[in-house]
Specification:
Blueprint lengths: L1 H8 L4 E4 L3 H13 L3 E6 L9 H8 L5 E6 L7 H12 L2 E2 L9 H11 L3 E2 L34 E5 L12 H10 L7 H11 L1 E2 L12 E5 L3 H4 L5 E2 L4 E2 L5 E5 H6 L3 E2 L1 E3 L15 E3 L11 E5 L2 E2 L8 E5 L2 H11 L3 E3 L10
Parallel strand pairs: 1-2, 2-3, 4-5, 13-14, 17-18
Antiparallel strand pairs: 6-11, 7-16, 8-15, 9-10, 11-17, 12-15
């Protein structure tokens, strides 16, 4: 933000873009600071959803933003073409965090050797990406109260969001990041939001074209814990030890139904209106193990009686906070809170 304030004070214009978080953060921050900017976007024939009107609404951009369309043949081709154009358009580069040996480092060196202007006063050391998130939960650490559950539940397990929540504008996501000392879209944050809004927002990720649904698992916490893993293919967790559960009999009454697993090469003869319940049994992984249930479209938790709702979280202190703020009973998966450092 200090770099943007300096650019504004100097009367300079920022070149930003969309399509990846680092560029979008610059775009959003410049908009919030009122810094004039040129936003590079895919042009005709390129990626969808990048018309100036929709971008202005998504990123809170005002009259200080203009758009530079970049014709590309595919979404995949846009990042490389964009970076090339940024270097060609820029009269001044302000490096912030550059990975040694990467594309930006190579082009920056070329830029300097050509005698182009570079301001290094805001540069910080590059920090490599952290290791994938992992959970190590042993049977002996589990909360014994989990064994006392008298009902069968289907659970919507949450995970940290890699970007805006499904119904959140990018500007609100990036504003929250800029205002928070820690990442503000953890699995626990997502659970809090679900319980506060009493709403599960459907997604079309990993589903057939045109299908939006909310996913649940019929597994008990004991059986679902071994399935919590880092999924390198998607660069995210399968899910994390936070979720909201609904009594299975109540869930069925509200349209939450088991999926129909099928061989990847075939499709069962379900009516077209029921295709939201279809799920491949998997080629690399075994999706059947998750015992998935789905609800087509968004799901209103406010229609579920409170006695049929239950939340899960990782630690007892979190469970107490969730119960106080949401009014939903919450069980911790672990019997004890983590020990304080030292």
């Amino acid at each position: 933000m200090a770099a943007l304030d300096w650019l504004r004070a100097e009367g300079l214009t920022v070149i930003s873009s969309v399509g990846m978080p680092t560029w979008e953060l610059i775009c959003a921050a410049a908009g919030l600071r009122g810094v004039p900017q040129v936003v590079i976007v895919p042009g005709p024939g390129g990626a969808r959803g990048t018309a100036p009107d929709s971008l202005c609404a998504a990123f809170g951009l005002g009259e200080t933003a203009s758009f530079h369309p970049l014709p590309v043949d595919s979404r995949k081709a846009f990042p490389s073409a964009r970076d090339q154009v940024v270097f060609s358009l820029a009269d001044l580069l302000v490096p912030i965090s550059i990975r040694p040996g990467g594309f930006m480092a190579t082009r920056l060196a070329e830029y300097r050797s050509a005698g182009r202007a570079v301001v290094d006063r805001f540069a910080v050391a590059y920090r490599p990406r952290e290791e994938p998130l992992r959970y190590a939960i042993s049977e002996r650490e589990l909360n014994p109260d989990l064994e006392k559950l008298s009902r069968h539940y289907v659970t919507h397990w949450t995970r940290a969001a890699r970007g805006p929540w499904p119904d959140e504008l990018p500007i609100d996501y990036y504003r929250s990041i800029l205002a928070s000392p820690a990442y503000p879209r953890t699995a626990l944050d997502t659970l809090r939001r679900i319980l506060t809004s009493r709403r599960l927002v459907a997604s079309d990720r990993h589903l057939p074209r045109g299908v939006r649904a909310v996913a649940f698992s019929g597994l008990s916490p004991h059986r679902v814990l071994p399935l919590i893993r880092w999924r390198a293919r998607y660069r995210e967790m399968s899910f994390e030890p936070y979720g909201v559960a609904i009594d299975a009999s109540v869930a069925r009454e509200h349209g939450i139904l088991p999926v129909e697993y099928c061989d990847p090469a075939t499709r069962p003869a379900l009516p077209p209106d029921d295709h939201w319940r279809l799920q491949s049994s998997g080629v690399v992984g075994d999706w059947v193990r998750e015992e998935e249930y789905r609800c087509e479209g968004d799901f209103d938790l406010g229609t579920v009686p409170e006695e049929a709702l239950l939340a899960f979280c990782r630690f007892p202190a979190e469970a107490g906070d969730i119960a106080r703020t949401s009014g939903v009973r919450c069980l911790p998966l672990l019997a004890r809170d983590p020990r304080p450092p030292g």
